[in-house]
Amino acid sequence: MAQDIPRVHCPSLSHFHLNFVLTNRPVVLTGMVDQWPAMEKWDQDYVKDKTQDFIVSLKTSPNGLFPSWSQQVEERRDMTFHQFLDTIYSDSPKEFHMLSGDQTHLLDKSGINPHFKKLWADIEPLPVVPMERINSVGLWFSNKGAKSSLHYDGCGSDNLNVQVRGQKKVHLYAPDLMERMYLMQTQGRHNFSHVEDIENVDRSRFPDFPEHPTFETTLKQGEVLFIPSFWFHSLTHEGPMNLNVNFWWAPKTLILNDLSIRSVLMSERGPRILKSLFATREEDKKQGRFLWDYVSGIAGSPTETEDSEKNTVKDEKPEVIITKPTPKEEEVAEASEKKSTQIEVDSSGCEVLASFSVPEEYSRADYSRPGLQSLISPMSPETFFSEFWTKKPFVVHGSLDRFANLRKSMKDWDLVRMLKHVEGKVPFQMWGSTTDGRPIHMNVDSLRQALPLYDSGWTLYVQHLFQLGGPWLDALLADLKYKPLPRGYNPRVPQPTFGLFASRKDGTPTDWHFDAIDNFTLQIRGTKTWSILSNKEVSNVCTNYQNRPLSGKGFPGAIPGTLPKNDFSAAATVKLVPGSVLFNPAGSWHAVKASEDSLSITFTMPRQCWAQLMGPSIERFLYFQDFWREECGSDFLENKEHLAQVLAERLQEDLKEFKGSDLIAEPFL
Length: 669
What we know:
Elements: E1 3-4, E2 7-9, H1 13-21, E3 27-30, H2 38-41, H3 44-50, E4 55-61, E5 65-66, E6 75-80, H4 81-88, E7 96-99, E8 105-108, E9 111-112, H5 117-120, E10 136-143, E11 147-148, E12 158-165, E13 168-173, E14 215-219, E15 224-227, E16 232-237, E17 241-249, H6 258-266, H7 270-277, H8 282-295, E18 321-322, H9 329-337, E19 351-352, E20 354-357, H10 372-376, H11 381-388, E21 394-397, H12 404-409, H13 415-422, E22 428-433, E23 439-444, H14 447-455, E24 459-462, H15 466-480, E25 497-503, E26 510-514, E27 517-525, E28 528-533, E29 545-546, E30 573-576, E31 581-584, E32 589-594, E33 598-606, H16 610-623, H17 635-638, H18 640-654
Parallel strand pairs: 1-14, 2-3, 5-11, 18-19, 20-21
Antiparallel strand pairs: 3-15, 4-6, 4-7, 7-10, 8-9, 8-10, 10-17, 12-15, 12-17, 13-14, 13-16, 21-31, 22-23, 22-24, 24-25, 25-33, 26-29, 26-32, 27-31, 27-33, 28-30, 28-32
Helix pairs in contact: 7-8
């Protein structure tokens, strides 16, 4: 069932910004406009008296939908504004009418609309958004029964909708439901769904459309609805006459997801962006790569693909990794000599995580040199590659002094100084949760945005700190003989990173998941507790997975169906303290929680697979053929089984011409 939109009475600017704008979550605000003169004065006679009588292009619809693309029934009719007011105040309208806020604006770039100048004096700025941030203010008029077809605001703006007269039934769908929204593909209509009337869904045409919206409520007179950017919404006007004032403003931080990327590419800028992607001149290629980085989410949040069905529980008890206290010297020596790559299991059936202590001579500052040895000592590189690299986790405990040179290059590990050094150059990734426990992941671009969230318990992650620790990452990659796939092959392939995690005591933990990266974590400050479990279900991991239900189609290319739900409660833990180094290979299940305020450094090496190389190359190959550049059209959805078979046969035939040289096509490098 849909949730009711939460209601908050007169929040402060900071409370509204931190809890709803930055988290991209809807809310109904109460008590915000009680003092507006408009709430008392704006009836039919007053509005007519205070406005000029000018010609408006009126939207009319016999079925109440605005717009109704499928039936092509919406019409435009010119009449005076005062005639329009008389029409919508009719007790028994024969047709439905609407004037939208983009037509009857109070304020836009050119200033206050002279037709409504006297009405402007009856409203006041909303205290939750500085007036200088507002791009436009619109007036909406409609009679009872008018409905807005399901859409999101194509401009990507945040929206505060004030109900001055009447009331509306509100249905909201989250942006991550994009694949189930049946969006139109025509530029200018790309933000509208083919499912116009959500209360009468044709399930034969739209079988995957959600049974219920994410949120729904009735917006009553005097209430203010916050619709965050890229949320799908449909509003049914229920009052005898409905009058709304909308405030639109562009969010300072664009939350990158599949929907916002699609919106950019489908906008007027889309052709220019796509043209830049396929440029041949070097300066155009650089511009194209920059635009692609921006719109493809390389600087934003990765797309997760997960299964919404319930995971099944395995009958057998899973094996669990445990960590011993700092081992004795003979245990270290014995562990270093082991040659078997099998996971060790103790008498209780739990896995044993190899643990080492750094001898005193390796803890001195003069051993602080970039490279693999600084992270794995006292283990030898030969043992590391034969026993652990890409296979098994281990932990090394030792003095933080052995990383003295890294400390100098990283601003003495002062968090604020490090963030100031890279502010505006890399995004700050934030992890938090809502009051009902829902996880949130967003990117912000300034300390002013990041630090309040961090102080309130959010986890902060910053990648690509090459200006602070680049030589250390370069030396490590050289020792590992790790060569990243060139970005020209696939711009979306993750690159090796050097970053930091900052977590607060008892702040937002990291839930069970596994990553497609081999990772070294160096604990700098505080303690952090890791729980680790080997992955017996998936081999050749090349994409991430989180063990919680979300919409999606399961783990791509891993195993049929859903991943088993492991008995994570049986897992033991390892505690990282300043100076500890943990190696965690790709695919290893893990969950992390800060026992106290924590700062750690990460070296990550993404797994690279053939699919990442082949997929974009095949796509580029197809772009050179007329057939594959044809618009697929909406009829694909109606005949998808037949067309899918036709396309598969055509693809098999065309790929016979695919050559090795197509993998390294020069114009795309």
